[in-house]
Structures are given as structure tokens and as C-alpha cells.
Amino acid sequence: MTDIPKTYDPKEAEQHHYARWEERGYFAPEINRDPNAPVFSIVIPPPNVTGSLHMGHALQHTMMDVLTRYKRMSGFRTLWLPGMDHAGISTQLMVTRQLKKEGLTRHDLGREKFEERVWQWKQEYGGQILKQIRREGASVDWSRERFTMDENLSRAVREAFVRLYDDGLIYRGNRIVNWCPNDQTVLSDLEVLREPQKGKLYYLRYPFREGGGSITVATTRPETMLGDTAVAVNPNDDRYQSQIGKTLMLPIVEREIPVVADDFVESEFGTGAVKVTPAHDPNDYEMGVRHNLEQVTVIDQFARMTDAAGSEFAGLDRYKAREKVVEKFEELGLLEKVVDYEFSISKCERCKTVIEPLISTQWFCRMEALRDLALEKLQKDRKPRFVPEVPYEKVYSDWLENLRDWTISRQLWWGHQIPAWYRNDGEVIVARSRQEAEEKAGTNELTQESDVLDTWFSSALWPFSTLGWPEQTEDLKTFYPTSVLITARDIIFLWVSRMMMTGLKFMGREPFADVYVTGTVLDKHGQRMSKTKGNGIDPLEVFDKYGVDATRLTLASVGSTDTRWSERQVESYRNFANKIWNAARFCLLNADGAELVNDPFAGERANLPLHDRWIVSRLNKTARDVHAQLEQYDFHGVVQTLYHFFWDDFCDWYIELSKATVTAEADSPERTIARARLISVLEQSLRLLHPFMPYLTEELWQRLPVQHSQLLHPSYSGVEPTIMLAFYPQCDDALVDDRAESEMGAVIELISRVRNIRAEMSIKPGERVTLLIRAIEQIMPAFETNSTQIERLTRGKVIIQDGHEVPKASARAVLSGGAEVAVPLEGLIDFEVERARLSREKEKLEKEAGKLEAQLGNADFVARAPVEKVAELRARMTEIAQQRTALAQNLEALS
After folding, report:
1. How confident is the model at residue 803 (pLDDT cuts 50, 70, 90)?
2. How much helix, strand and coil, in percent to the nearest 5, is found in the chain?
3. What confidence tier does 488 reach under pLDDT thresholds 50, 70, 90?
4. Is 224's pLDDT higher than 70?
5. What own/partner pairs with CB < 8 Å and gap ≥ 24 does 505-508 have?
6. Three-state SS for 46?
7. Pairwise CA distance, residues 170 & 513, whole Å
8. pLDDT at 845 over 80
9. Is 186:362 a contact under the CB 8 Å cutoff?
10. Which of 160, 380, 416, 518 is the most exposed place for a label (fewest CB within 10 A)?
């Protein structure tokens, strides 16, 4: 106990304790010996195998670990299952770049050798993030670590695909898709970014075949006009009623195209007439289907013009073709005008290449039946329950109601190869294996589909594939459905909804009851962090600088609200960690004899000193509040609750109120019991803090002079003691004492106000003061009984005001409940000197207030200045007003 260092070294504790926890199997649910224990399970959103830890990961992992440790300490059989996603496009890109440095392409290796190379890369470079997750203190069960390309998970993917195909929910078709010319693969709608862009709107005239005249269309993509097969107008647009059904001559190409009427056309856009290119625009594609229009592909998968665009355009890049088309129209006198125009452009979310809509033969998943399962579960059972409910439940349901079929095939080599084979006659055979396919086809002359599945297809199965599905494993029976999903709002569609649909489809139950949507950690300017902007904060660097515990506490306090990153906040929680360490050090250095007392608060509570009854009540109320807040996922609230209990109640007051007895020289029963009580409250406080600050709490808990094994939850009997398996403190309602809290609150307020008076009036620390106290009958006994404490902590002499007249030159304070305290100033200070000092201070504040009023009265300044700056100035104005009032009162007392 006496060898506790003066300062806390987070790094040493972080390295030592995590390795011990993992080696001893504390993270696995099997550590719980109670077969009837309740179950808590949660799956990690699998980070990409190519990824590294960023603030979003650290935020989510902190919250997941808080819940996991809390539930484990509460006696639950707890599983937090870790793993990684194979990240098809990203991983293939990484290995392709590596090959390029060697002068090779994946085609030089062939598919089989390329896949071997990817596995080699994964073993050597992939999964760095898993090492980083350990650094966070994440108590995941590493013995159950999963990877979406593991054989067991791959088998689950094949099983799901076959079942969906057999149910008619997967089909192969020729439809328009989002194509990335850079990654050379199709993308789902959810993998496409829509970004505003400044560009041009080109007004092109299309002449009528007969009778002269023309129709002008407006377009942002002139190059696609080479594939136009119609011009469309709104049927209710009076300007074009007589022209519907007529024929136009498409310039340059000289193809005859009709004028058609379609409700989709917005009369307000451009001229009210739009060109229709069914092969290169999703909306035009739908119009083309409705009007049976020809689909002419003029741009290929490399974003170059095809032969169908004409000999003088074939092979040109799409943007070069745009320039040439505009030149041609100008030469033909058919370019009416070009205007600046801002519009949204679609880009690949990974490489940011502009998407090219193309008609392509792909595999699709019909979503109507799956969507209906999810909507019914939401409407009937309110599952999943979103926290916060607003706006995420509506966002989720609105998206489901407007869901379109999911493009699930990808033109990659890395991923789950689609379990479909083709006979020589073109017939498709879908099977779980080649052997099964050959049996179904009656031949071994089969060619497997070369495409792989969208990465999100395997991720959609994550809550149950990781537990052994399609086998009915013990893990699947025990831990499915999981308890809660913690995730970011940007993957509600990509992942949350798909897990819900597949869970209901294959398991007949939702994969989780609750979905907690975290806030986002923004940079100091309020922008989202990103590699592109270079404004990201590396959590590992923050760990190194401030310690993991301080960082975790900062992240947990984010809760569900977007928050600007502030190192000052992390620094404040590092100071909190140091406060805990110093408080514990004081307790440990004064702990001799404390270990001899089993239950230091035993006995008749009424006989306990007020500050002991008060801290026991505050401790139990804190435990009650923490449980309630964690059950409601109020992470921010619980951080504040724990912070204020430990810093304010325990450190600032209970230690101070106990100090005289605890540090007394005489070895007495009073000193021993006071020390034991201090250690007892500290020990329970550390357990309450542990889910948030695992390293610091374990480091201190192990040093306490207590029977550690007796503090373990009964489910972990026989285990080497660790705070992470100790019983999480519960509230004992019998120990909540509102009267003690009210009386102690009055004493604390009195001491605080006298200390303020001493500071405001510049009374020397060594000077003793007289305290004239007047209070109502109910609270007066608290002042009388605790007068020794009051006098010690204020360096004052308590006089209960009963007929005593308060001198005019007194500093006064009105307390809650109508009590008053007055401190006579005669003989304590030089009135004239103090009046001069207070006057100068008042004048200084008045000048500052004048400047601030001028700034805030300037409408231009308020409009231009950052919102937080204006708020800061207004807060300062309020503070100055309070200070001026206090100064005026003090000056009056000295007059």
C-alpha cells in the first residue's frame, strides 16, 4: 500500500492488465459458472481488413465495452464477438497496387493465384486494426474472432444465397446499374455518393424530321445525346401538346426519335423537354421501359465511347466526347446556349470516381418480401427500438418503404464467388457446392459465375453466421438474438436494415432488440473527419498523450449527439484520472488497520456521523442512477453522474470531512473505522467506474486492503480476483437517506459560502473568522452537531445567532432554505485598502462589459463571427454581471 507511485503511468497499466485479462480467459462467456445466468451478447460492426482505428471505431467500441463490462460485472453470461470484414473492393485495390509495384496485374497471376496473394497480404498486413482494438481495452472474446471469408461464414453465405434463390428472391437480369469505371465493378445505390457540383447546362436543339422547327432540350451530359432514343415532355404541358407523337432527327447521329409524353418529366426544368437515353440514366431507363424505347449503349465500362457513338467518337473519353459534341452542335447552329448550373453528381464512395450508369447483366435480390418482414416487425413489435428514436426510426421505415432491388453482384476476384454455374447451353444452376451443382445439372461441364457478392451480403448475416448458422450450434441457441447493436447513422441502410431483414428471414427473429445510434465526433471546426480532408484525429496518438481511460471517458460522454473534438476535454478527463489516483493514494497511505474491519458501516445508521450517512446515501443513489442511465444507453448522463460523485462528493468533501480522523496520530478505533469507511467507499466507486476506465480502476483495486475474492460476483467463484469480475454495486434503498443528504448539503453550502467570502474579501488564510449563523429550526441541529467540521474547514468560530447583532461591516450570504451566515470583517482587513481594490476591480469589469456590449450590439459582427464565439461572449457578459453584483454587495458591507 505504501509503495503506490506519486503519479499514475497509464501505459504501464494498459500493457500489463490487458494481457492478463486475455490470457486468463476473462473475456469469454464461459468464465461465468452459472448455467442459469442471464445472457448479454453484442457483435462488433466488423471493421475492414484494410482499415486502421479511427475516432468512429473508438467511439463505438468504447460504448460497446462499457455495456459489456457492466453486464459482465452484473453476472450476465457476456459475449462481445469480434471480427473483420473482407472489404472486397478495398482489399483487391490494396493487393493490385502491390502487384503494380512489381510490374504485374492480377490478370498476369490468374484468379486462383491472385486469391492466394490476397490471403498472403491479409496474413502479413491485414487486421492491424485488431491489435489496435486491444489497445482500447475492448473486452471482446478473441477465441470467437471471425472473418467474413472464413470457411464457416462462407458456407453461411452460400446457404443464404441458395435459399433466397430457391424462394425466388434472387434473380439474374439485364438492368441499368451504377458502374465505377475505376474499380471496374457495379455498385449498389447505397455505395454511391451524391455530391453538389458546379457545372454547365447545355441547351441543344433537335430538329423535326418534317415541317421545320425544333425542340430544345437541356442537359448536363451532352455526350450521352449520341444514345438518345426519344425526347419526353409532360403530357399536361400545353407548350408541347401538338408535338407529342412527332418525329425528330437526332443531330450528328441522324437517327429518327419520337416525342413521347411521360408524367416523370418536370415542366419547370430547362425547357420542359428532356432527352431520353435509356442506356445511360436510371430515370431514362424506366421511361424507356414504359415506352418500349431502344437502348443504345454509347459509353463502355471504361467510360470511353463505343462504336455505337459513331466512328469519330469511338474510343474517346466521355469528357473529351462532351467537348466534341458541343463543338459539333455549335458548327451545326444547334447550340442554343450554355449556362452555369449547380447539380448533384454521383461518385463511387471509395475512389470518388464519377459513376457511369450502364445497362448490365447482374444478380439482384428482390427486396419486397424481405422489406415487408422488417416493416411488420417495426410496426407490430417496435423492433428494433432506435435510441434516440427521433429521427432514426422514421429514417429507417421511410427507406424500407421506398426500397428497390439490391444489386448484389460485383465484378471482383476477392470475395464470395457467387454459387451459380452455367451449363454449356446457358442454363443456370445455383447450388451450395460444385458437387451439388453437377448433381443438379447432370454434367460436370459447368462454368462457375465469375462475379462475387457485394461485401454487405455477408455482413448482413453477421449476427448469426458468426454464431455457427446454418448449423444449430450451442452459441447460436445461447447468444442469438443479440442484445443491442451500437452503430453510426450512416450504415442504418447499408447494414442495420439488411441484418434485420436476413435475421427475420433465416432465423425467424430479429437479430437485436435495440439499435443505439452514436453521435459523430467532428473536428474542431464542426466538419466530419476524413482522410481526404486530412482533419482526422488518430485515437492511438490520443491514447499515447492522455491515456486510454481519459480518452474512453471523453468518447463515452459524446453519447448520441454530434460533438466537436476537443483536446481540452480529454485533458480534463486525464486530470480526473489523476484526481482518482491521488485520492486513492491518500486513502492507501492512510489505510493501516482498515483491512481488519469487515463492514465499516455496520450498526445503527442513526449513530453514524452525518458525513458517513451522507456518503453512503450518495453512493447508493449514484449506483441507482448509473444502472438506470446504462439501461437507457444514456452514456453522457452516466459519465456526468460518476464524474460528479467521485470528484465532488468523494474527493472534495468526504475525504476532507474524514481527513482529521483518518490522519490522527493516535491509533484509535475511531481512526481505524474512518480509514475502513474511506477504503470501502473508494472500492465501490472504482467498481462503478470500471466499465469506463478499466485500466486505472484495476490498477488501484488490486492495491486495496480488501478481501478481493469476496467482492467477486458469485458467478465467478474460484477465479483469480479482478475488478472486471467483481460485483457491480447495486442501490440499497434502505441506505438512501434524504435527510442526511439535505443536512449535509446545508453544511457543505455553508462551508463553501464562507470560503467564497474569505476569497472575495482577501482575508488571509491564517486569520480565524467569526461565523454568525441563523437558520430555521429543522436545519440548525446540523450546524450545531457539525460545528467542529465547519470550524476546521473554514478556519472559523461558529456562533449560532440568537440575539447576537450582526455588525454592519460584515460579509453576508443567504443560504438555501433561508439560512444566513455573516462574517464580521472588523480587524480582518484594511477597509480603505479593500474598498480601493474592489473599486478598481469593479471599474475593470465595467470597461470589459462596455467592450463586450459594443461587440454584441454590432449586428455585422454577430452575423460574421462563429456561433461558439458569440455564445462565449454572451456567457462572459452573464459572468461579469454576477461579479459586479457581488462586488457591489462587498463594497456596501465596507461602507
Report:
1. low
2. 50, 20, 30
3. very high
4. yes
5. 505/164, 505/370, 505/373, 506/160, 506/163, 506/461, 506/464, 506/469, 506/470, 507/464, 507/469, 507/480, 507/481
6. coil
7. 27
8. yes
9. yes
10. 380
Return the C-alpha torsion angle 226, 229, 231, 232, nearest 10: -130
Q: Are strands 810-814 and 820-824 parallel, antiparallel or unpaired?
A: antiparallel
Question: Mean pLDDT score of the chain, rounded to an integer?
Answer: 93
Q: Which range (317-321, 428-432, 507-511, 664-668) has the least confidence?
A: 664-668
User: Is the per-residue pLDDT at 871 higher than 90?
Assistant: no
Q: How many CB atoms lie within 10 A of CB 294?
A: 13
Separation of alpha carbons 798 and 802, rounded Å: 12
Residue 893, exposed/middle/buried by CB under 10 A (0-12, 13-18, 19+)? buried
φ/ψ (deg, to 5) at 197: -150, 140
Return the exposure string of 239-260: e unless at least 16 CB atoms fall within 10 Å of the residue's CB, then b: ebeebeebebebbbbeeebbbb
pLDDT tens figures, 232-277? 999 999 999 999 999 999 999 999 999 999 999 999 889 999 999 9
Write down the residue that cell numbers 472489404 correspond to. Answer: 87
Q: Beta strand pairing status for 406-407 and 356-365?
A: antiparallel
pLDDT at 889: 78
Give the separation between CA 148 and CA 128, rounded to whole angstroms: 16
Task: Tell whether omega for the bond before 388 is within 30 degrees of 0, i.e. cis.
Answer: yes
Per the structure block, which three cell numbers stand in for 335? 447550340
At 204, give phi and psi (nearest 5°).
-115, 140
Helix (H) / strand (E) element for 214: namely: strand 214-219
CA 555 to chain centre: 9
Q: Which three cell numbers stand for residue 512?
A: 437485436
Q: Is 252 helix (H, G, I), strand (E, B) or coil?
A: coil
H or E element that contains 422: strand 420-423
C-alpha span between 636 and 728 (Å, rounded): 19
- How far is residue 602 from each of residues 596, 598, 616, 617, measured CA to CA in Å? 14, 9, 11, 14
Chain segment 710-747, per-residue pLDDT in tens? 999 999 988 999 999 999 999 999 999 999 999 999 99
8 Å CB contact between 378 and 233: no
For residues 138-142, give the mean pLDDT.
98
Of 726, 716, 655, 731, whose CA–CA distance to 694 is shortest? 726
**Cα torsion angle, 735, 740, 742, 747, sign:** negative
DSSP letter (8 states) at residue 879: H
Of residues 805, 794, 801, the one with CA closest to residue 769: 794
